[in-house]
Write a structure and sequence with these properties.
The chain has 169 residues and is an alpha+beta fold. It has six helices and seven strands; from the N terminus they run βαααβββαβαββα. It is globular.
Length: 169
């Protein structure tokens, strides 16, 4: 699957993105797993969308929004964290297409040196996804996240621009 593109998230996307984020299949893998209210979501968007070094992006496939990507420079001007999720009804292969588009944007357009990701230890799909895209497992934060009942490990991943370029050849 290919042909998707990224665009900047706008006010018009708020309702759609919130519905994806609150879907049980997405929410259970997030650090904050409560149902997010429209007001809370709107406040997050207002606070975040104008921050320097933060890109809130919508992944579209054939003109239809299919996922959300957040790229945030946090450590230095050339290193960023990423987060993402798909529309719950996305067809197979959409995640890989979103991932490739996001990494293309991060390394080509933003000229980043490194993209970092994290996955909760029980999120096997996200772990496999990062590894499939070429990320290297860089560490484990043992019992780092408490979900209200249990502690969970957090796996840390990194992908360098040089590794990404090699993987594209």
């Amino acid at each position: 699957m290919s042909g998707g593109q990224l665009r900047k998230m706008t006010d018009r996307d708020l309702e759609q993105v919130l519905s994806w984020r609150n879907h049980p299949d997405v929410r259970r893998f997030m650090y904050t797993s409560h149902m997010i209210s429209p007001d809370e979501h709107a406040r997050w968007f207002e606070r975040t969308r104008e921050q320097q070094g933060v890109w809130l992006l919508i992944y579209e496939l054939e003109g239809i929004p299919r996922g959300f990507v957040n790229i945030s420079r946090t450590r230095s001007s050339q290193v960023a964290d990423w987060g993402f999720y798909l529309a719950p009804d996305s067809e197979s292969g959409t995640g890989s297409a979103l991932g490739m588009a996001a990494l293309e944007y991060a390394f080509r357009d933003l000229e980043l040196h490194k993209v970092c990701g994290q996955a909760l230890g029980f999120n096997k799909r996200s772990i496999k996804f990062h590894e499939k895209l070429g990320f290297i497992r860089e560490g484990v934060l043992r019992e780092q996240h408490f979900d209200g009942e249990h502690y969970h490990d957090v796996l840390c991943f990194g992908l360098l621009a040089s590794e990404w370029k090699l993987g594209k050849q």
